[in-house]
Amino acid sequence: MRKSSRTSIPVVVAAFLLAACGGGGTDPVSEVAPEEESVEAPTRGDADLVIWTDALKEAAVTSVAEPFGERNGISVAVQVVSSDLQANFVTANAAGNGPDVVVGAHDWIGNLVQNGAIEPLQLTPDQLAGYSDVAVQATTYNGRLYGVPYGVETLGLYRNTDLAPEAPTTLDDAIEAGQAAVRAHAEVDSALNVPVGDLGDAYHMQPLFTSLGGYLFGTDADGGFDPQDLGVGGPGSIAAAERIHRLGEQGDRVLRRSISSDNSIALFTEGKAAFLISGPWALGDIRNSGIAYDVQPVPAFAGAEDAKPFMGAQAFMVAAAGKNKAFAQEFVTRAVNTEEAMITMFEGAKLPPSMTAVAESIAQSDADIATFAAAAAVAAPMPAIPEMSAVWEPLGKAYAAIVGGADPEKTIRDAGATIQRNIG
Amino acid sequence: MMNADISAAARSRRADRRRAVVGPLLLKVLALGTVVGTAFALTPSLVGQERWLFLAAIWVIAGVLVATYATGRGLPAKYLVPGGLLLTLFVVYPIVMTGQLSATNFGDGTRTSKDETVARIIASSVQQTPDAPRYNLAIATSGTPQNGPYAFFLVDPGSGSVFLGTPEGLEQLDPGDVTIVDDFVTEPPTGFTLLTPSEVNAAGPELAEFAVPTDRGAIRQLGISQAFEGRTTLEYDEARDTIIDTETGTEFTPQQVGDREYYQSESGQRISDQSWLAYVGFDNYLRVFGDDRIRNDFLRIFVWTVLFATLSVGSTFLLGFALAVALNDRRLRGQKIYRAILVLPYAIPGFISLLIWASFFNRDFGLINQVTGLDVNWFGDPTLAKGAVLLVNLWMGFPYMFLVCTGALQAIPEELKEAAELDGAGGFTRLRLITLPLLLVGVAPLLVASFAFNFNNFNAIALLTQGGPFSPDNPTAGGTDILISYTIRLAFGAGGAQIGFASAISVLLFILTGVIAALQFRATKSLEEVH
Fold it and tell me: With an 8 Å Cβ cutoff, are A4 and B50 in contact?
């Protein structure tokens, strides 16, 4: 074992950063330190199979894991890591006290692989054929499968059917109907809620960006993303930026920085917005609010390319340095990889299932889930390459600036240059 | 040579004392025994993990503790050692480690050693043989479950054929030789015992080496109950430090890219995004000073950081002090109620109030614009955003200053004020010449600490504006960024966690904060002359 004392370094650094934050250590003008929670790696539970997940999925994962434990006569611990699961997992795994299985998003895979934190999985082609193509594509990295996907998520277009009775066929129709609703009803404030915020939101802007001709990374011959081919700053992205600018605060005021992921769903459920672009996670709130709604895949702008929001797959992954790798492999490739487990995960997590048979059976009873499953099937998996971490911030901020009225061409070119420099 | 009587008396006194200290002595022996016992208990595992530095540190600590408390000598040490040890452990050690780390490229993609990286790249290259069956596996041993030798009993669920797999190869068995239930071998031939799932799991490292060679690769274990046929497509040539793709013949050698190395082919194709930890000397520091962006933004952000910290301390102190003085008047009724209300902002967890304040400043839907009827884009304009941040920080911080000042005010003797009054000093003069100087004696060090805290008040910035607003051409340095929020973005914002680089920045920030604090403490010394 060549782990030496290096393994404790991240924690120590974190402690030092905190000590620095604390100044004299005696003066808490405000004693909060949310990062304190995130840097303190959780301790691994003592069980024959340890699974880390977040609070939203805990119940579902537990109900899949417990029968597995009983069948094999082993103890199972499902632990919730409430903040920054990915970073905590990487740190704990490197230190040798991480979990055996981690449940997370597919776009972590690139970072987890470059940190040597997860192992490839061996599913037979027959088994893989049971999953939707995009889900398999999303969890495959460098030609290897790294996760068993249980759910897919993507953005859809929600519509308040009282305010806009007709389902739009283009985004232009949606915006027009939304603006008509704003004019007709005093309490309606927003035609179409697309989260932007003061720092921008590259995730929610993606369907607009792609429909208007923008792309982030080109694909190489194998279908993987090619970090050398950056689309931000290119002609398609400039055309998209110009349109976003016209829809922004200096133009139609459809896109506004005052609408962010913090308030966009609430404004819609309060009836203050005619349309909303959001994912299946908004379904719960919208249903509870009792407003009349419908949801459809995000349509394209008139005469433009298809809107391709990001597709995200949630998946079970096997830790590279887990203590119980045999149980972990058995659990992920055998127990999770079944229809029963996938149904249990759907009941708990309410994400459109990635296993085709399960998705079809649930589509019978839940039309909205069927809509999101169909939307995910034609969406583009979010790039999992580590270079993506260099994209989010500059691109988001460029969107915020363009929506706020900055010169669209110069701003998107600058963002492209910044991203290029960060990728190196 | 000694007087016998005195000596005898001393002896008996000592005996008395000994009886009296039996209890504490026992405790002392127990405590020191625990220390030494812990050191002993940790030794084997640390030797096993080859963590020599840690091992040495533990024995040095144990030795220092025993030497200090077991012997009667060195009384001052008894008081200094605990504090000294804690100081070393929690202050000196992290600083040294941070310094050490700042000389590496440690971060995302470079967390593993080179050997681990190569091992992982090779292990990840195992590829299933197309069309090969997925076997149902039962692992057996002809020796012990811990050490083997192991054998695989494999059933092809498609054809029902049974095989025995050993390191020598695959051998078809007569289904009559074994008991099969649900396509799994449940009863092996004599001489073999099956491993339970837990035994399979425990034998993981040994079984990872176990493979049954076949024409098309090898059969390997998959979990507890499955086996698959596949082969490794990559080989590592240690002598040439080259990874070879056995299918295409492509060779991958380490190539330097930025602060790290990757295995790349001649055409620049990377075999994996995984790199490894390496020492980079002062490169991280050179990067801080050599980057144009950092050089251009640093001064502006540094000035705002100092301004932010100064104004935050000044405004919270003035408001807190004014309220403390006002509420210290004994003629005031309901003092306690007012005080409780004023401390409320302090009682709400800061990150909650910061997030709520952030929503108050929303241009179209925020409370502030709605109540005042304004249409101000608070976080869209650098100056307004700075004002908003200062305002919120005032709200967050004044209760602390109020509490401190209230305490300090009550410690100032009434006679001094009465004396001043008799000398004909008015209310404001008394406040300025008597109350304030005496108060500052106690409060000044806290103001310095408060300055250091606000200098690095990451939460206030991160939860309110996240450093924004940003100018369109510069997404790295925002209008309200202070040094800590700016540098965290540099180290973690683009391209994953760059912990080595972050450490270099922490060391620089540490030096900067330390120098400022030292200057301030020197300045506050003059206040002590009041006494």
Answer: yes
